[in-house]
């Protein structure tokens, strides 16, 4: 078995377990501290978008208006790009927790 196949097998086996653990944990935070969780979700989306924008602007400054992936990025920009998607993914987990629990049960007032 090659290394890539092994990685895919780990992803298929451990992916649902990790997804469910993150979902259950974020649902607990949504129920116990809805205002703080909502602010954290929005902060994660904003930070992720800003990191993504910074990494992509560096590529646009090199002259590539349309680029997909990280092939033209420097090492620091690659880390920002991966971190951006990580922040936005975690924000999506929290958003899914809000949607799963239901907005009617969670009252957000500022």
How many helices? 3
Return residue spans where pLDDT drops below 50 for at least 5 consecutive residues. none
The span between the termini is 55 Å
Major beta-sheet overview: none
Assembly state (oligomeric):
single chain
**What's the total count of β strands?**
0
Strand content: under 5%
Arithmetic mean of pLDDT: 80
Structural class by sheet pairing and helices: mainly alpha
**Overall body shape:** flat
Order of helices and strands: HHH
The radius of gyration computed from the alpha-carbon positions, rounded to a whole number of angstroms, is 18 Å
Write down the domain tally.
1
Q: How much helix is in the residues? A: over 70%
Characteristics:
single chain; 110 residues; 77% helix; transmembrane; transmembrane helix; membrane
Overview of the molecule:
- The protein has 110 residues and is an all-alpha fold.
- The protein has one domain.
- It contains three helices and no strands.
- Helix 1 packs across helix 2, helix 1 packs across helix 3 and helix 2 packs antiparallel against helix 3.
- The longest helix is centred in the N-terminal third of the chain and has 30 residues.
- The chain is flat and about 45 Å long.
